[in-house]
Amino acid sequence: MDRQLLDRVSRGETSAFWELWFQYQDYVRRVCLQVGGSDDDVNDIMLKLLESLPVYAGRINNLRSWLGRVARNFCLDRRRREARVRLVSFDENVIMARRGAGSPA
User: Which of 11, 54, 67, 89 has its CA 20 to 30 A from that of 105?
Assistant: First the structure.
């Protein structure tokens, strides 16, 4: 059944995408939450899949595995980006505080 839906997705049938999404969205959500993701991440993954699944549909052998990998990588990448932003923000605040403390008023 997945193969037939993937073939339809690869031909641009959005109704087939939604059939697959409704079938696997709970699985994608579980994978995402297991690695620290959020429901917002799940929504973003859905948008990413809506765009990318038609491109890759013909090459996917195990849809569940592929979706799990996409969800896991997406959520981990987002957490890494957020951690870098927090680190940079912290470093900038420390530098600004040091400059402010060392400069005459």
Answer: 89
